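Input.
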Amino acid sequence: MRILLLNYEFPPVGGGAATASAQIARHLARRGVQVVVLTSHFRGLPRREPRDGYLVYRVPAGRRHIDRCSVPEMGAYMLGAAGPALRLARAFRPDLMHVFFGMPTGPVGLLVNRVLGVPYLLSLRGGDVPGFMADELARMHQLTMPLTRRIWARAGALVANSPRLHQLALSVVPERTVELVPNGVDLEMFRPAAPRPEGASVRLLFVGRLVRQKGLVYLLQSLAQLDPAIRGQVELELVGSGPDEESLRTLAGELGIAAQVHFAGWVAREAIVAHYQQADVFVLPSLDEGMPNVVLEAIACARPIVATDLPGNRELVRGGENGFLVPRADSAALTAALDGLITDAALRRRMGAASRALAECYSWANVAGRYLALSEEIVAVRRPRSEASKQVAL
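Output.
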């Protein structure tokens, strides 16, 4: 089988969906699938690159930040990828396209489908689903709904990566079947490390974009609300960057916890494991999420989790077993959960072990296998092409 994978972000550019697409491409290639990826260019990266058994092509999109993308930059990818996607599809002759994000990648897949008839599987990731982050994205979803419906209607399969997205997608297209395929984790890369020494300060870790959606205001407030004797034993590391960084720094100062909060900035993929391994507790206070890759990575590193009670998190955080779930935007509840873990090293060790055991169920190999099965179903209903078995050199 030949698959053309489209995603406007791809490692080292982007977040969780970029990681997912790279892992799926790698594991599909291991199964003998020919994979070509078309994504956005970023300064310093080659325009054409062989990686892990597949090829990556990058098109100009004017992207300025490695960890986030503006709406105009998304539009630039749509325009910049249209011609190259058609040329690649004509040369590569894919059996199927795997399209990540209904927006902004979906229109590129729709164009290739309309012009060349190549079917596509659409992987819904979060902000591309109407109803997700409703306070911030409602207007955009309203404006793009007509195009979104066309893109979803032409997809051979719709796939959501969390129960929350699955429910939202069904509310948009109740007449369609929406598959649920969770995110995965690289169990070889993300693994436990030796326990930190007894008596050391307790390290809390957050990994993600510094934006309102992540609920970091409530995390800082919860740290400030800890008993002073306990708070003195705690450090908080925020790994990531984003538009809210300066306001969060200001808030930490106003709350009197600036000395305990470390802003690590954006960290390259190959270096992120050490941050998980050097932490004692992973915290994700998001206001909305799909199925967070960062939680999967943290549980694979045997870390107890404190996260907001969202459908995607419920899959990965079993309350009382490997961590605690707390209500959204509730700093007092977050404080109570953190207090229990900060003051009980044995509880941290027990929950950490439970996290790793749970992570074993979420290998990327299994996820890629699910996507391959869906791809084969889509291709099977189409008329076989006479030269489908030929190798194609690009």
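Confidence is low (pLDDT under 50) at residues 385-392.
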